[in-house]
Amino acid sequence: MKFPTGLPIGESWIEAPASVPVIFPYDGTPVADAPVGDVAIARAALGNALAVRETVGRLPSYVRRKVLRDVHSAVLSERDAFVDLLVLETGKPLVDCRVEIDRTLLTLETSAEEVARLHGETVPLDLLPSGEGLQGFWVRKPIGVVVGITGFNYPLLLAAHKIAPAFAAGCPIIVKPAPQTPLATLWLAHLMRSALADTGAPSSALQVVTGGPEVGAALTTDPRIGAVSFTGSAAVGHRIARDAAPTKVLLELGSNSALVVADDADLDAAAAAIVRGGYYASGQACISVQRVIVVSSVREALLEKLGARLPGVVVGDPRDPLTRVSALINPAATSRVREWVGDAVHAGAAVAYASPGDELGPTVLTDVPDGLPAWDEEIFGPVIAVRSVPDVDSALRAVNETRYGLQASVFTSSLDTAFAAIDRLEVGGVVINDVPGFRSDVMPYGGVKDSGTGREGPRFAIEELTTTRMAIIRPRP
Predict the structure, then answer these.
(1) Domain 258-440: which topology?
(2) Hey, which residues are catalytic here?
(3) Is-above-0.90 flag for pTM?
(4) Helices (H), strands (E): how many in the chain?
(5) d(Cα 408, Cα 254) in Å, to the nearest integer?
(6) In the CATH scheme, what is the code of domain 7-253+450-473?
(7) Residue 245 has what pLDDT?
């Protein structure tokens, strides 16, 4: 490995009390041993972060920008090695891991640029007579220590979305990666702590603590932290929000993203998007296509076009550049997805397509009833469910009939339909004529309802992780 053993705590790396092997999901072979922290280490990290809070908050803009630029250069120089590690750690296809590293680089680069855009505004206090003669302006100040908790599916990218905006805002951050995928995050932390040391900034500005739920609870419930930024399941996110109150909590949770196909849609483009958007990262993405809601007059034509494309989706070893679907993160995830598919079929759904062989590959269900996880919940696997409705109005209502609301897409050639979707869909992002999984890392990204609160994307995350401080000055007492 290209980083020290142990955990980056305080100004050095310390020995962890235990270790576990990281397993390559495709064949079950060990990748490397990963350190496992505990509550004592979590508390030590909190103490170190709090000790440097004021120092990090006062780092000059040029230092914060330089550190992030240096990290970008360091990651870029190790791009191929990072890709290889991501494939082994996550089991995601090579093509998706290449996308992850490119998006990570963009996140680091744009976070560095946003340092130059942290500014305030003047305020006309004399709109009331009592404000006559007063000068007013506001500035942004760091919110304090940030705790970032990331998911297993995009470990490097998610870590970058926590770390880079927090540091750009002037906040020390403690990251807890998913237990299955800590290695890329530890390597990123090593590169950033090296960049911090090169500028004379405290390495404690970034620490990583691994471990189980008890470690997460110790980090997120400490009343001295400024914010928690969590990416993961709705159930865990809700518990963190309750337990951390009144600390600010940013939640990027799951979804069962919908793709609507109107009767005037380009069906070839829609079918291609469903395949691309439903099966990238083996379906383990919170905005992958799960629900396809098609106007009934074009249902059969769409299914026919889907059926023609699905045999071309390569299932197999994620190290193969042609592979598009591979093993899920662990056998338990695979068993759960199979169980949800079985429950749907038992309740009356049909399997329109399933890949041959024993591997869990691209699957299409039709007419899954309400009330079943394959329609109502986030399946997080290579499964999509197709349902037909009479018209576009019914389709938009169907999109909203869920507790989730992250992103959705609509395929149509009508501007009226496009703007109706933008106006009516209860989601954080509406995509027209592309996959609901489209995300530019510079845009505001997040959901509504049970899909979360707050927004990511460097500019928007920095706003979330800073507070406004108002200055009111009477020049002559």
Answers:
(1) Aldehyde Dehydrogenase; Chain A, domain 2 (3.40.309)
(2) 252, 286
(3) yes
(4) 16, 20
(5) 13
(6) 3.40.605.10
(7) 95
